[in-house]
Amino acid sequence: MEKEYLLANMTWQEVEKRLKECKIALVPIGSTEQHGPALPLSTDHYIATQFTHRAAEMIWDEQKVVVTPTITFGFSPHHMEFKGTITLSELTLSSMIADICHSLDQHGFEKIVLVNGHGGNETAISNALHDMHGNIDAKVYHANWYNMVGEKIREIVTPPLYHACDMETSVAWYLGQRVLEDKRVDEPGKSLVPGFISPDMSATGPRASVSYNFKEITNSGVVGYSTQATKEKGKQIVDTVLENLVRFIREIAKI
Amino acid sequence: MEKEYLLANMTWQEVEKRLKECKIALVPIGSTEQHGPALPLSTDHYIATQFTHRAAEMIWDEQKVVVTPTITFGFSPHHMEFKGTITLSELTLSSMIADICHSLDQHGFEKIVLVNGHGGNETAISNALHDMHGNIDAKVYHANWYNMVGEKIREIVTPPLYHACDMETSVAWYLGQRVLEDKRVDEPGKSLVPGFISPDMSATGPRASVSYNFKEITNSGVVGYSTQATKEKGKQIVDTVLENLVRFIREIAKI
Amino acid sequence: MEKEYLLANMTWQEVEKRLKECKIALVPIGSTEQHGPALPLSTDHYIATQFTHRAAEMIWDEQKVVVTPTITFGFSPHHMEFKGTITLSELTLSSMIADICHSLDQHGFEKIVLVNGHGGNETAISNALHDMHGNIDAKVYHANWYNMVGEKIREIVTPPLYHACDMETSVAWYLGQRVLEDKRVDEPGKSLVPGFISPDMSATGPRASVSYNFKEITNSGVVGYSTQATKEKGKQIVDTVLENLVRFIREIAKI
Amino acid sequence: MEKEYLLANMTWQEVEKRLKECKIALVPIGSTEQHGPALPLSTDHYIATQFTHRAAEMIWDEQKVVVTPTITFGFSPHHMEFKGTITLSELTLSSMIADICHSLDQHGFEKIVLVNGHGGNETAISNALHDMHGNIDAKVYHANWYNMVGEKIREIVTPPLYHACDMETSVAWYLGQRVLEDKRVDEPGKSLVPGFISPDMSATGPRASVSYNFKEITNSGVVGYSTQATKEKGKQIVDTVLENLVRFIREIAKI
Amino acid sequence: MEKEYLLANMTWQEVEKRLKECKIALVPIGSTEQHGPALPLSTDHYIATQFTHRAAEMIWDEQKVVVTPTITFGFSPHHMEFKGTITLSELTLSSMIADICHSLDQHGFEKIVLVNGHGGNETAISNALHDMHGNIDAKVYHANWYNMVGEKIREIVTPPLYHACDMETSVAWYLGQRVLEDKRVDEPGKSLVPGFISPDMSATGPRASVSYNFKEITNSGVVGYSTQATKEKGKQIVDTVLENLVRFIREIAKI
Amino acid sequence: MEKEYLLANMTWQEVEKRLKECKIALVPIGSTEQHGPALPLSTDHYIATQFTHRAAEMIWDEQKVVVTPTITFGFSPHHMEFKGTITLSELTLSSMIADICHSLDQHGFEKIVLVNGHGGNETAISNALHDMHGNIDAKVYHANWYNMVGEKIREIVTPPLYHACDMETSVAWYLGQRVLEDKRVDEPGKSLVPGFISPDMSATGPRASVSYNFKEITNSGVVGYSTQATKEKGKQIVDTVLENLVRFIREIAKI
User: How many Å apart are CA C48 and CA D88, to the nearest integer?
Assistant: First the structure.
């Protein structure tokens, strides 16, 4: 059996056996939402899946883990004006995450890592963590791949870091995602309140927030410079993320 | 692009274009739950995915459709005593289905077919259909593959028809699922109220129901005669199901 | 005291005493919904009540039971275009059923039988059973009277078996319901997806489902041949149902 | 047809016709809960039903009304220590009331009167009224029969007025309820906070409240002097209530 | 530290210490809603806060208590047509009350008194009490200041007693609330069903209820004779309420 | 009238008049939770209130605004092991915020700024913003005062920036909060996953998160160096925050 960390590929007896040597489960979480003219709707769940599977492979010899099926739908109402986007409600998503964690906990997994690839999911994930707090034995960790990059690596990409941008396109590309190379566009995105609310994860200074539709800040669905994306950049970022992710799993295994 | 019916593989502009020739969306629904010692946890969602993708391919030239990512988690609390099973609550599952349908409806899909592979999901699917009734423009259809078999085909399999049984194992095998051939077992399952509540979808006569855990009726997780399963039987059943599924899509395309 | 199986007619001390010899409670469930021009809105709850009371009387000497007040309102949104229909939401109905069962359970009843007379309630009943699973000591059984008929008895009635049809009208009539004999009509009902979705409980072959309003398939509210109904047929069906129901209660009393 | 105000006894065409001359619907609401050693569990819903039916009969010639099936289960957790009591959650009950009113409203009833017989239901009824406010065209009125008594009539009964007391027993008796005459007991009930929280609807002076179980304030389930009850008193009270109820319906018919 | 009964002014160590001598917590509850042209929106929460703080001060030497921050928002949808009114949903309010009580209970407070100043909150408070019943160790009491007046004191004010009326204005004024003296108006309020539903807390005789908007019964927002209000009346009422409130706290301290 | 921006101090007519010149409402949000041995439980809501009132005063001459009563309770389950902390559930808090915003929106306020002082509230605020999105006309902005500091000002305080730390203590002190100067303590807080999950808002590098109780990372309730706090630092930070907050209000007034 290839990819033997995949929970869904095992029989229940195989899971029972695996639980004797492994108490860590990884849950990839993404979305099915527009990513501009060059990247498919699957981008977020594709990336989250790739990072999780690759991290599982990298750490396999030193530490067994299991990986559940990917949560392929996320919280994406702000992208609904772009065709094909599918969104769960925030409550559905957080309930789903909690249900999965409770199931894993019941089987004896002691550490669960939610590996998230979509910024829009963060609130729902936080709700799930809060709802489980005190009601679950397992420790549930939440790791966004884009927060595993560190500040340094961000220097190699052209800001803003936001959506289907240089960083995300480079990463997706390197990880094997379908990229419509010649459809890539650059669109910096509109600042909704100049100096306070701007579409850029790497922005500094005072900041506030507001709920909005992506159509208000971009026509193409892109916020960033996707024409700057290269597989080489992608490799550098992916390597860093995987290194950190593996190190993170190693750390929690000790707890 | 291979499998060009896959929504998640498209960009939003490609979906926009596809919507001009296609208003039908298919949503495969399964579960991640124990299927005895010979079949992996993925069995239900694997089968639902296979049937949906193959039906899409078969009907493609005459009728375009899109297929969303598969709902890989289902309602499976009754299997939780078998390791690895993951269950959503019934409310989470029905909300998830409704959220996906509302998203598709908002984009202009007019007919949605939920292709289900897990009996335990039927109540949640029914809840979702009821909740959407009057609140959605699209027509949402619910088709269980095992109800697309018809009475005749059932004659080729050894009853009971229930879980990881002759029929399901044959179908999964033919569709390419990992089968641990020599781990297959036979277990007819216990009748909880003799003459009224028996684990067999093909049973006739008076019947009632009750909620139970699978451990009460089977030790192995199997209810049925999986040693009787063959790929040949699988092919016959799959062909019938696909023929009916394609015919069903053709019928609703006319409405 | 007549009908001494009626819980509501007892004082709390009488219930306390009865609990020493009886741990079985029966809960009739129906609806208040249109049943065409010849049958009153009460039909479903009238029938469920009659079957339950009569079964209680039949089994009384060998096995004491109690019968709660009937749930007279059900899930009937699809009938709302016909005046007088009252519908609960699916959640209200399932909560109500669960609340009643939890109350009975708390008093020490160990087996509860929901005797249902309305197909539209099945999903809500299923929700209630699932919600109680693991949270209640009592075993809760669900029996639809029309599933206590068995295949054979269906041969004496003219299909389709659906709503205010030959079978239902015959049964209601024999059980003493008000029947406006000369208002009876025949209307076979419309198939929403020919070959797959037809209004007939006795249909065989591949099948799917969809949510719809009764107005889409019938003008009169009837789906079936109510002019074929006779009290004699009613008697035959009622006798069979009662025989099975009594046998069912006898079986669960042994568990 | 006797009792031709009964909605459930009509066909949908009869309701349709009745709606041309009548826009007022009455909904009796009670409970299934202990009423001490002399009165059955049905007491509250029996009384509410009787008052509503009798008021409908009294006003029939001048004003047509319809009466829905009685809500026989109420909010009674505080009585659960007495066997046989069945309680809905407050949310289930208020949802049920709102569902029924929305159904009536949809058919064109313009005034709905909830005729309540159980003090424990008041909060849920209030919730239902609040939830419907602004979402329903019909005016929904809430009338407790014990608030239709007026201050004067209370003078003929021995206080406290609370539960299975002199007043309630007298009323039930006169209305034809089964009364175990020689089981009647007197129990004044315990004051939980003397001077502030006492079980007596007719108490004056400063007051506060607290949630409690009936077992804390009474051993028999009675709070009041049921041995003082007579059918004659019952008649006086019933006549007053009916007179007021009829007058109330007459008033709202004018609005 | 002034007002040393104020929970929020203490550090957690001070609360820990205080809990050794005091198990009683008081929670003032009001609203932010229109009170006619002479009283500010804060009136209900201002009065509730004042009564609670003053009662705490009066009883301090004999009995320590703590007072939580005031719940300043209440259930006021019926006032939304008057600018500035803020309303919570009934569920939000009852959840909030329950959350606060559960927190106090968890810290070891054994008696909690909700001191309410807004009639519109009564249903939500009742919901909260019911929801906590059986799930909380602390006893939770509910006291409306206007029910601490007693019948006698009401004689000094001009009826109706309802909203921004003689009684409320007098009380607010004496307690130091901002009163726009020359903007006071008299408006008796409209009876929605004469003889049954009238805006007057002091009304006797048969009564029913209905949900309505204040605009239907008053133009100014006042129901009552606020020009009759005086600080002297206010003092008399306040003294009585405080005396009763202090006596009430003394009583529950003994339990 | 002092502080004439305070909504609750106005009559409804005054609000009506104010709405002609002002469409901006500010809502301070805090918590009632432990802040170590030197700061009271009110700290977060005290600070949020102070910032909001002071900003309103500063911008008053150029731009009128109204300020609602402060939300004094927040989401603080992780502090419940420290006495006195009161927590709402995340759902209660988000519903409360949404209810308040919907009320303001209904009156015609077009821009609402939630001025938050408690990190633990961010998820609930985000939920509220998401829930209102598409259902409210007003733009709802979310500003945490600690995100109005900017990177530079952080340099004057000793890290970690977390809870009752140098920064928070300095700010509270300068704003007039009760500070038990000699009870101040230093406690850096425990890192739950070294290199990834550390209690410091100013930390850089890869990061993940997990739900935890404050007792796991601090004994005193403090995470930070509160002995380093001075009113002078407080002034610098407060001035910066106020300057940014005023600038933010000015910006949104233009939109």
Answer: 21
Give B-chain residues touching C255 at CB under 8 angstroms.
Answer: 193
Task: For an interface test with A, give the residue of F210, F213, F240, F242 to mutate (most A CBs within 10 A).
Answer: F210
Which chain E residue shows the shortest CA-CA distance from F37?
E11
- Of C140, C150, C196, which has the smallest distance from its Cβ to B251's Cβ? C196
Interface test with A, best of B9, B10, B41 (most A CBs within 10 A): B41
Q: If you average pLDDT over every residue of chain F, what do you get?
A: 96
Burial F14-39 (b: 16+ CB within 10 A, else e): bbbebbeebbbbbbbbbbbbbbbbbb
Q: With CB atoms and an 8 Å threshold, state whether E139 touches D244.
A: no
Contact yes or no for E143 and D75 at CB 8 A:
no
Q: What is the pLDDT of residue D2?
A: 72
A206: DSSP letter: S
B99: number of Cβ within 10 Å: 21
Q: Got the DSSP string for E62-111?
A: T---EEPPPB--B--GGGTTSTT-BB--HHHHHHHHHHHHHHHHHHT--E
Residues of B in contact with A108 (CB under 8 A): 83
Q: What are phi and psi of A86, to 5 degrees?
A: -120, 130
* pLDDT tens profile F54-83: 999 999 999 999 999 999 999 999 999 999
Q: What pLDDT, in 10s, does the model give residues F119-167? A: 999 999 999 999 999 999 999 999 999 999 987 777 899 999 999 999 9
What pLDDT is recorded for position F154?
A: 75
Give residue C161's pLDDT. Answer: 95
Q: Are F152 and F118 in contact (CB under 8 A)?
A: no
Confidence of residue E204 (pLDDT cuts 50, 70, 90): confident
A194 contacts on F by Cβ (under 8 Å): 251
Return the bridge partners of A113, or none.
Answer: A26, A141
Gap between the Cα atoms of D4 and D9, Å rounded: 7
Question: Cα(B34)–Cα(F224) distance, rounded to whole angstroms?
Answer: 49
Contact residues on chain F for E42, CB-CB shorter than 8 A:
8-9, 69
User: Using the beta-carbon criterion (under 8 Å), do A206 and F142 form an inter-chain contact?
Assistant: no
F42 Cα to chain E: minimum distance (Å): 5
Of B73, B82, B100, the CB nearest to A86: B100
Q: Which member of D10, D40, D183 has the closest CB to residue C8?
A: D40
Q: Residue A1: pLDDT above 70?
A: no
pLDDT digits (tens, 9 = 90+) for A170-228: 999 999 999 999 999 999 999 999 999 999 998 889 999 999 999 999 999 999 999 99
pLDDT digits (tens, 9 = 90+) for A108-124: 999 999 999 999 999 99
Q: What is the pTM of this model?
A: 0.98
C210 to B141: CB separation less than 8 angstroms, yes or no? yes
Mutate to test the interface with E, among D93, D141, D152, D201 (most CBs of E within 10 A): D141
Residue of A nearest to F91 (CA): A127
The span from the CA of B10 to the CA of D147, in Å, is 66
List pLDDT tens digits, range C196-249: 999 999 888 999 999 999 999 999 999 999 999 999 999 999 999 999 999 999
Residue in chain E nearest D244 by alpha carbon = E206
- Are chains B and A in touch, 3+ Cβ pairs below 8 Å? yes
Asked if pLDDT for residue B110 goes beyond 90, the answer is yes
Residue F12: is its pLDDT beyond 90? yes
The yes-or-no verdict on residue C1 having pLDDT over 70 is: no
C-alpha to C-alpha distance for B173 and B232, rounded to whole angstroms: 9
Q: Is residue C138 very low, low, confident or very high in pLDDT (cuts 50, 70, 90)?
A: very high
Across the beta sheet with A209-210, the strand order is A209-210, F139-144, F111-116, F24-29, F66-67
Give the residue carrying structure tokens 């000369």: C182
Residue of D nearest to E251 (CA): D193
